[in-house]
Amino acid sequence: MAGPTALPIINPLGPYPALPVGATALDYVYTAADATNGNSFLATGHELLLVQNSGASPYTFTVTSVADTVQRTGDIGPYTVGAGLFSAYLVSAQLGWKQSDGTVHLSASNVAIKFAVVRLPSIP
Fold first, then answer.
1. CA distance 77 to 89
2. What radius of gyration, in Å, describes the C-alpha atoms of the chain?
3. Which of 55, 65, 85, 116 is the most exposed place for a label (fewest CB within 10 A)?
């Protein structure tokens, strides 16, 4: 079995972008889940996971945990996203979520689940 499919990272403009803001500069796309191999993204502790269910039925996704320093684990999910709805999860803590390769692992029950990973900047 292949490893999880890497998701692209969205680096949003702001808070003071060069003006005028060009066409498509603020746009992003959702990536269909790899329902066979799972997905992953490089974790920095500044990621906002956005999830869309583009299907006509409810489907699920899971954020896979890893044992932390006291060996606690607990996946988020399988979390059900209703048909046509969106969900969000802030991955601001890496302890318990960051795999040994530095990534966070996700799985989904169907390709109708789509992911977007937004890396939020550090704001002083």
1. 12
2. 15
3. 85
Within-domain flag for 76: yes
Domain count, the chain: 1
Comparing CA positions, the residue from 7, 11, 12, 17 lying closest to residue 51 is: 7
Give the number of other CB atoms < 10 A from CB of residue 36.
11
Does residue 103 fall inside a structural domain? yes
- Integer Cα distance of 56 and 84 in angstroms: 7
In whole angstroms, what is the distance from residue 20 CA to residue 6 CA? 32
Is 124 part of a structural domain of the chain?
no
The rounded distance, in Å, linking the Cα atoms of 45 and 43 is 6
> Distance between CA 2 and CA 106 in Å, rounded?
14
- Render each residue's pLDDT in the chain as its tens digit; 124 residues: 589 999 999 999 988 899 999 999 999 999 999 999 999 999 999 999 999 999 999 999 999 999 988 788 899 999 999 999 999 999 988 889 999 999 999 999 999 999 999 999 876 5
